[in-house]
């Protein structure tokens, strides 16, 4: 039977919400946790619509460390998330991420590479010829150098979400289909949530893990979050390429990216400044690929002048318009209101570190990884923490 009072209520059963529930219960199996998800099919949630890519190639130490922790977790993820002998299959393909650098991105990326190496990451600095060795289809247009992270790669985001979800339920979390319409407060303390059914659930700890809907949730309790739902589109194409193995994922300076899925299949995407803002448009438009991406793709990979557009989809980035980075922790002006929002397109890979960090904060533990650089306080103080101007996932 569903309770009405919980130690923690998590709004949103995406990868952030489920990973946090898992870590809370791992630390303290006695906790009563509710995960509230308005759509358990996840039709519009960002997690299953993501490319599932992870990289250690960031310029902020904390972003690199989050990815390092994620790579560690992935080594035993299937076993750790096993429930009754059933294991998730993340299908992690460490094909490596290959960043092409032009004049404007070279110095910044070189600094990033030195930082990554100083933290123990393996990253190669490449000449243009080195780039071509890794990705022979690329004609080197605009390339002055490159970086290659051999441990970066792509996986099934749904398998990771499902793993955390099933394991946290097995550990005792209540997963409830419900839409939150209001976060409730008394003075400067959160006290629960109101559902669209009219029911009220009580808790002194409420987590906003509502992804692209995070600002709507925050608004109900008077918190202004600079998180904007932004449409992003991905297209799958079939080409004539039939080389051996899987090519690295290729990231061009313009933001165009090409992720090899094996044989002739490639996943292609690019963000545009005029991408639709709002939670009302999930329509994949073939013409965006045909008219705005294909010609650019052919400029770099001439062989792709003949290809078949197979299908595509659109999902939402939860863009933090202050600085493009995560917002993690308790809202300092509202006790018990925890945020894991604003990941701006690179959240999937951070779910492991974020789940652990938010759980540690809620339980008053010393964080294993100090992520206070992403504190919500910076939003109130208008102090952005910029990562980089060029990397898009
Ligand atoms: C096209 C695309 C490609 C991407 N590629 C990558 C990538 O390669 N690597 C990477 O790291 N990241 C990537 N991302 C970003 C990544 O998907 C997100 O950062 C991450 O999945 C966010 O997880 P989340 O749990 O916060 O959000 P979500 O998965 O969106 O989960 C939030 C959940 O909250 C629920 N919810 C919302 N409002 C309410 C409410 N009022 N009541 C109850 N439930 C509610 C929603 O239904 C949803 O299920 C990509 C995103 C997109 C769209």
Describe, in plain words, how this protein is organized in 3D.
The protein has 393 residues and is α/β, with parallel strands linked by helices. It has 2 domains: 8-84 and 157-226 and 322-380, 3-Layer(bba) Sandwich (FAD/NAD(P)-binding domain); 97-151 and 228-318, D-Amino Acid Oxidase, subunit A, domain 2 (D-Amino Acid Oxidase, Chain A, domain 2, 2-Layer Sandwich), CATH 3.30.9. The chain has 10 helices and 19 strands. It has an 8-stranded mixed sheet with strand order 5-6-4-14-15-16-13-17. Strands 8-2-1-12-19-18 form a 6-stranded mixed sheet. β18 (327-330) and β19 (337-341) form a beta hairpin. α1 packs parallel to α6, α1 (15-27) packs across α9 (351-362) and α3 (61-80) crosses α9. The two termini are 41 Å apart. The mean pLDDT is 96. The protein binds flavin-adenine dinucleotide (FAD). Flavin-adenine dinucleotide is lined by residues 11-17, 36-39, 42, 45-47, 49-53, 179-180, 209-213, 217, 232, 234, 315-317, 343, 345-349, 393.
Topology readout:
Elements lengths: L7 E4 L3 H13 L5 E5 L8 H4 L3 E2 L6 H20 L16 E5 L1 H16 L5 E3 L1 H7 L10 E5 L3 E2 L2 H14 L3 E4 L2 E7 L2 E7 L4 E3 L3 E3 L5 H6 L7 E12 L10 E3 L5 E6 L2 E5 L16 H15 L7 E13 L6 E4 L6 E5 L9 H12 L14 H4 L13
Parallel strand pairs: 1-2, 1-12, 2-8, 4-14, 12-19
Antiparallel strand pairs: 3-7, 4-6, 5-6, 9-10, 10-11, 13-16, 13-17, 14-15, 15-16, 18-19
The protein binds flavin-adenine dinucleotide (FAD).
């Amino acid at each position: 039977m569903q309770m009405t009072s919980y130690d923690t209520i998590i709004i949103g059963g995406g990868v952030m919400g489920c990973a946090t529930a898992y870590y809370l219960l791992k630390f303290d199996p006695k906790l009563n946790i509710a995960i509230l998800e308005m759509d358990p099919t996840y039709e519009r949630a960002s997690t299953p619509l993501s490319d599932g890519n992870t990289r250690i190639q960031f310029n902020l130490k904390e972003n690199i460390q989050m990815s390092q922790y994620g790579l560690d977790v992935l080594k035993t993820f299937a076993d750790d998330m096993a429930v009754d002998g059933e294991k998730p299959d993340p299908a992690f393909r460490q094909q490596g991420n290959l960043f092409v650098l032009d004049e404007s991105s070279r110095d910044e990326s070189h600094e990033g590479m030195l930082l990554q190496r100083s933290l123990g990451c393996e990253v190669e600095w490449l000449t243009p010829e080195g780039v071509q060795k890794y990705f022979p289809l690329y004609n080197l247009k605009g390339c002055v150098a490159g970086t290659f992270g051999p441990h970066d790669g792509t996986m099934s985001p749904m398998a990771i979400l499902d793993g955390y979800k099933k394991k946290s339920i097995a550990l005792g979390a209540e997963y409830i289909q419900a839409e939150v319409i209001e976060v409730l407060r008394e003075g400067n303390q959160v006290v629960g949530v109101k559902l669209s059914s009219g029911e009220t659930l009580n808790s002194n700890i409420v987590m906003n893990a509502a992804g692209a809907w995070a600002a709507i949730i925050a608004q109900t309790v008077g918190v202004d979050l600079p998180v904007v739902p932004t449409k992003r589109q991905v297209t799958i194409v079939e080409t004539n390429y039939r080389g051996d193995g899987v090519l690295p994922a290729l990231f061009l300076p313009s933001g165009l990216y090409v992720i090899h899925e094996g044989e002739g299949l490639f996943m292609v995407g690019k963000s545009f400044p005029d991408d639709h803002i709002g939670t009302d448009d999930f329509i994949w438009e073939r013409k965006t690929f045909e008219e705005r991406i294909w010609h650019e793709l052919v400029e770099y990979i001439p062989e792709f002048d003949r290809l078949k557009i197979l299908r595509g989809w659109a999902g939402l980035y939860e863009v933090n318009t202050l600085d493009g980075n995560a917002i993690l922790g308790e809202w300092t002006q509202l006790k018990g209101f925890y945020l894991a929002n604003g990941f701006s397109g690179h959240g999937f890979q951070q779910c492991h570190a974020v789940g652990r960090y938010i759980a540690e904060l809620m339980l008053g533990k010393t964080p294993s990884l100090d992520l206070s650089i992403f504190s919500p306080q910076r939003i109130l103080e208008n102090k952005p923490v910029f990562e980089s101007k060029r990397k898009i996932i």
